[in-house]
Amino acid sequence: MATKFCWTRSVLGRLGTAGMAGLVSITTPSAAIATPFDYRISGYLREYLGIKLEDSPDFGRGSSSKELGGAGDLIMARTVLRLDLDAAWGDLILKSIARAVHESKTSYLKDLQESVEATGGNGDFIDDEYEGRASNGEMRELYAIIPITPNFSLTLGKQQVAWGEGDFFRISDIIHGNDLRWRPEERENEETRNPLWLINAVFDFPSIESQVQLIYRPGWDLGEEVVNMRDLFGGRGQQQPFKGFDLTVGTPQNYDHSSGSTDDPNYGLRWLSRIPNTTVDYTLLYYRGLWRDGVVNSGANPIGDTPPSILQGFLGETIYPFVDIWGLTYNLDLPSKKLVLRGEATYIPNRPYNFGSTGGVYRPFGPLGPPVSVPVAGLGGIKEKEVLSTLWAFDWTVDWTMRWLRTQRQGLWTVEIFDEWVLDHRGGDDLVAVFGNGATAQTHHTILTTTLTLNYDYDNIQPGLALLYDVNYGDAVLVPSLNYRVGDHWRIFFEANIVLAKHTVGAVAPGVGEFLENDTHLLGLDGNNDRLTIRVTYQF
């Protein structure tokens, strides 16, 4: 622990400099100006601990000569320090958030590193992927809210803009990519959402209870900040059975493809209003941005720029084409029923899918050369489809928890139904639901989530239970949790992730997944990886 405390003090010094000097120096008024400069500093020091709850028989086998990942292994020891500076200079509002991260190299992670390196991947993924720039202190957000008129304001700088009503599936939260590499199940969206450099203009129309928001991203952000980043490099979040194997080696990321470059501007607008004489709030929105989950531009059937050749050891490259997203949300408050109804819908006329559930056929020596069949699902190429995604949800404050479960006040019961509908789906499309897995995309894919939160000891003890259930395929994820408040500063949070998968990818050889299996779907990808997360936070 002494080492961590030394690290914390050194990072505190770096963050103090990064988070305050850069902002205060440009905003502190001269002595001749009477406008006061007020500010407040807050933040937290947080420790994440992750523990495996079951054995994973295929972790890293074949590369480090031993089986990795047993029940009880410490898979995460992550320390986070965050500093928030909230300031005001007259009507000007200023905000800065700085964050530093340190990942302890547990025995489990060291074994995975050796396995990744032995199989040709990036053995430095802890430093490069889990910590990244935040290892030395990172300016996460830095922006100013400038009131131009009483009904018009500009927010300029690196910021987060959250659209939508969803929790687990955020189909209208489309402006930002998410960093899901270190913990994909993190439910506090602001912790994983990547802030972007934005021009955010808001026009208020108070007489009709409405607002127009214009968003423009000039393209100043790093590529990895714009898209969704996941653990595909063999770490603790990699799907079974590929932990210890870098799946990005054969499909490197291309942030500057002709179909979509992270350097190109993105833009959108949102109309927010209330239906007169009701409690119904709604939004209408449009955004043109990148498909943040990416698709693989197969070397067997490429689009646009030619990806690296199979002769160079590449199957293709991961690209992020531009898409147009049209959407709406609604929120209906029924106070007499203690009920809130909410929902979202987005329509994408040009969403990219990989196809080819049996892989792709290459001719690496030219059109007259012999064909080479590569049995990796999705290498058939890319097709664009019309997709309508919907979310139907309610939040209900329920009294029965006080009678049956002896809570001190009402509990909160939430239900969300997410559906993805491929409007122009054809039988011969052979769309792949998840690249590398042979399961094909269906016309409709529906997932149900439900959460119950209880309140004891004046809300100091809050147990919770969440369930995600795949209506199409029967896979489920159970998430019990406990939030414990200790005084004004300490917060302790426990959460388990228990995957009840109908099928997960098996191994046909040490560390090699089943070829062209077609039974593994979204919620089953994390099978054989049940784990417990403990999060201890000191707020100041």
Secondary structure blueprint with pairings:
Elements: H1 2-27, E1 37-52, E2 74-89, E3 92-103, H2 107-118, H3 125-131, E4 138-149, E5 152-159, H4 189-192, E6 196-205, E7 210-217, H5 223-226, E8 256-257, E9 260-261, E10 266-274, E11 280-290, E12 295-298, E13 316-319, E14 322-334, E15 339-355, E16 360-362, E17 372-374, E18 381-398, H6 400-404, E19 411-422, E20 444-453, E21 461-470, E22 476-486, E23 490-500, E24 507-509, E25 512-513, E26 531-539
Antiparallel strand pairs: 1-2, 1-26, 2-3, 3-4, 4-5, 5-6, 6-7, 7-10, 8-9, 10-11, 11-14, 12-13, 14-15, 15-18, 16-17, 18-19, 19-20, 20-21, 21-22, 22-23, 23-26, 24-25
Question: What's the quick description here?
Answer:
This protein has helices at 2-27, 107-118, 125-131, 189-192, 223-226, 400-404; strands at 37-52, 74-89, 92-103, 138-149, 152-159, 196-205, 210-217, 256-257, 260-261, 266-274, 280-290, 295-298, 316-319, 322-334, 339-355, 360-362, 372-374, 381-398, 411-422, 444-453, 461-470, 476-486, 490-500, 507-509, 512-513, 531-539. By secondary structure, the protein is mainly β. The relative contact order is 0.11.
Give an account of the 3D structure.
- The structure is a single chain.
- The chain is built from six helices and 26 strands.
- The relative contact order is 0.11.
- The chain is mainly β and 540 residues long.
- Helices cover 11% and strands 44% of the residues.
- It is globular, with a radius of gyration of 24 Å.
Binned, the helix content reads 10-25%
Q: What is the rounded distance between the termini?
A: 21 Å
The total of beta strands comes to 26
Contiguous uncertain segments of 5+ residues: 1-32
**Radius of gyration, in angstroms, nearest whole number:** 24 Å
Q: Provide the structure class.
A: mainly beta
In terms of DSSP E residues, the strand content is 35-45%
Number of helices: 6
Broad shape = globular
Mean pLDDT: 88
Major beta-sheet overview: 18 strands, antiparallel, barrel
